[in-house]
Amino acid sequence: MRILTTFKQETLKLLKKTRAWLGPILVFVLIMIAYPLTVELSSQNLSDAFYPVLFISCLLVMMLATEGIFLEDFEDGSLEQLVITGNSLYQSIIIKIFIYWLFIGIPISILGSLFNVGSGNTMDSSLMLLPPLMITTYIFLILFCFGNALSLTKGSVLGTLITMPLLLPILVILGKLTTAILFNINYFGFLILLFGILSIIIFIFPAIISKIIKTHLE
Amino acid sequence: MEDRLLIQANKLSYKINDNKLFSNFSLSLSAGQAIHIKGSNGSGKSTLLRILGGITEPSKGFVDKKPNINLSYLGHKNALKTYLTVRDNLILLNLKGKREINNLLDLFGLNDRLDIVTGNLSFGQQKKLALIRIFINKSDLILLDEPFVGLDSETQEILSNFLNKKVSEGVGLIFTSHIAANIQANTVSISS
Amino acid sequence: MLREIINTVIKKFIHQFASPKTYFLQVKRLYPWVFYISIAIYVVAITWGLLFTPKDFVQGNSYRIIYFHVPASFIAQSLYAAMAFSSAVYLIWKVKLAAYLSRSIAPVGATVTLIALISGSIWGIPTWGTWWEWDARITSTLILFIMYLGLISLHNSFNNFEKADKLFSYLAIIGFIQIPIIKKSVDWWSSLHQPASITISDKPSIDPVMLYPLFLSIIGFSGLVACLVILSSKVQIYKREKNKNWIKDYV
Q1: Is C187 helix (H, G, I), strand (E, B) or coil?
Q2: How far from C210 is each of A101, B24, C41, CA to CA, in Å?
Q3: Interface test with C, best of A153, A172, A205, A212 (most C CBs within 10 A)
């Protein structure tokens, strides 16, 4: 019951702020449009460098999406209300991140796979790209939330500075995954690896984040 | 009588970067009692309320609360979403107790404002809304930090009566206020 | 119950022996010893390494920068571990001194990491023909450097020291868990760096003639870094405890 309520609350809060969910998605689309413009059209090599661009833009967009994710609730006092009335901060953080993924991560993953076809890659590779993108956007969201929680009132630059080193292993895996998709070798191995990482951090990081937020509330 | 004890603070001290706000502060409150905390600006009244509420950890001392106590707290921040309507703000916190909501709305005169976006309300109205929101929940102990600030004298009167009624019904109340309040309460002052 | 007893015993122990005051006095006594002994060791190591060891067959004389580079890169990571450990002690037992220590290790760690990076790229010019190469160990050292800077900027962002200490400690510990993962992943990504010269399990791939001065240089360098940490922690204690009575006697 409580979970359902939190779910409704967080959805309402996110949906009412159009810029918070539509903004990042549109920025992503703009990057995807900007990419072919930077490549000489006659060289017709769009597909080659598409994957790194895609992954980096996912990362940037998730950074934008999580900017101030906890700040509003912190500044208007909702978080202290939550803690003082004895509700679980941990639970609400898990749900909040999940909803952000639902409304920003998933659309971006689908759009990313579509633009993959648009960049001259095969339909098959797009279908293979979709699941790792969905997992990766979730991982990025969680880790950026961690950074943003630490730098809660001090702006997103500090949060990003803190988070980026933690994201590098994921980027390395994504780099390897590109080859796996292009040559269809060991694709599921990488998928399971990403999924394993997600399943570890999905419940551990919200616990750390709630500790951090409680420190800020003190 | 022991089981009527709601909250007990033992020798609380608080300091930021080695600057002491207050030290050795003790208090205890039973159901149906009210305490008015007084002190000059910067003496740590708000911090004390936050310590009692369990958000801030005291530097020394500890707070004992009745197990499973229901707390309501309103500090300087209203915890309202200014981009949502009044109705959304009320329902966002709680999906139960619709009837109680209507009574409270009538009491504070906000019943015709349900569909207005909260950001368009005046400061005083937002304060009323915030108060209504914390009163919706059934609570054993109410902690209020300067509840009368921003309210007109009429509403201050309404709020005092409402709180007096709550206390007589057996709710505990701890509040800070520099505005003279018409609430039967023991006065406690803190100083460094 | 048992846990509570153990906790109180540890707490009592810590608060008696790990008060900033005790630390301050002990360190004041020890500092000159540490400083002179380690500088002597380091000078011996350097003299030995620079003058009395043969040229490397492939690299000629340029390899001699290892007496500087290897200790620095070795200590850069050990310092992070020490900082994370100290942060954990702070979070678990609320020992203030531990928080001061981890905060004061951060700038020293950043400096040592920077030394490792710079000496590494100087070494790279004659050896690889380039001062920068996207190789695994350089990359992870650079990341380590950025992590130190991130920690320092996080701590400096908050006026409330206690809050800053806690957030700093959380990040330091998460970073510590991440470092091996980052290293492994970057290793996996690419490696053209020569494998580590000294490992505990394998026989060293370096000639013993060069090895002894290298060991000495690591010891001496560590001592000097420890001196830096001590100085830096003194600054922290001055900063945090300036209102305490005892400290006024020593300023």
Answers
A1: helix
A2: 55, 64, 16
A3: A172
ipTM rounded to 2 decimals: 0.90
Token representation of residue C88:
């954990």
Kindly state the tokens that stand for C84: 């994370």
Binned at pLDDT 50, 70 and 90, residue C200 comes out as very low
Instruction: Please state the CATH superfamily assignment of the domain spanning residues B1-70+139-192 in this structure.
Output: P-loop containing nucleotide triphosphate hydrolases (3.40.50.300)
Q: Write b or e for each residue in B36-48: b if 16 or more Cβ atoms lie within 10 A of its Cβ, otherwise e.
A: bbebeeebbbbbb
User: Could you identify the residue written with the tokens 């920003």?
Assistant: A104
Q: How far is C120 from chain A (nearest CA, A)?
A: 21
Domain positions in chain C are 21-249
- The helix/strand count (H/E) of chain C reads as 8, 0
Interface of A with B in 70-89 (CB under 8 A): 75-78, 80-81, 83-86
Interface partners of B (3+ CB pairs, < 8 Å)?
A, C
Which one, of C72, C78, C168, C81, lies nearest residue C114 by Cα?
A: C72
Q: What confidence tens digit (pLDDT) does each residue in C97-154 have?
A: 999 999 999 999 999 999 999 998 888 888 777 777 777 778 889 999 999 999 999 9
